[in-house]
Amino acid sequence: MKYISVVVPEEVDRELRFACADQATTKSRLVRKLIEEYLDEWKKEFEVDLQFPRDKEED
Questions:
Q1: In terms of CB atoms within 10 Å, which end of the chain has fewer, N or C?
Q2: What is the dihedral of CA 44, 50, 51, 54, to 10 degrees?
Q3: Closest Cα partner for 19 from 10, 11, 28?
Q4: What pLDDT was estimated at residue 57?
Q5: Which residue would you say has higher pLDDT here, 57 or 29?
Q6: Angle at which helices 24-51 and 10-20 pack, to 10 degrees?
Q7: If you ran DSSP here, which 8-state letter would residue 58 be given?
């Protein structure tokens, strides 16, 4: 088994904690799904930033 550490928003953390109360197989699937969804959202935001870089002088 391999362990990873991730930083997630509070709402995702809350869902993961509820998942831990479920059976192991349910927890495993839900945890994987939540992390994949979060990473997909993060990736989309990151790709938008690459397409439209912010001018540091504007900040």
A1: N
A2: 120
A3: 28
A4: 53
A5: 29
A6: 160
A7: T
